[in-house]
Known about the structure:
Layout: H1 4-58, E1 101-103, E2 114-116
Antiparallel strand pairs: 1-2
Amino acid sequence: xxxxxxxxxxxxxxxxxxxxxxxxxxxxxxxxxxxxxxxxxxxxxxxxxxxxxxxxxxxxxxxxxxxxxxxxxxxxxxxxxxxxxxxxxxxxxxxxxxxxxxxxxxxxxxxxxxxxxxxxxxxxxxxxxxxxx
Length: 133
């Protein structure tokens, strides 16, 4: 039988180890999520700048139907821009492997466009959407 003091010390050591493991797991998880949000912010920043180049070059933004693909391939649906050129090599998916949401005119930005990641739930216009801010 262990003396009572040894059991108390053993319990404290186990509690300390468990706490370290939990804190490490939380930090790793937080780091992964933080990295995903950095990627979204970076991607959206690039899309914003290229959409402005597109607007300047063509005179308008891509329609919702044309989407961000209009930065990669000349649209075949209306409005077809006369002065088009490729602005990006490809449109990457968001960190949750889902297409970024582009809507013009936007629901939240009716005088412009909405551009965001639908986030972990992959459903647009929900609480976990990441607008890259």
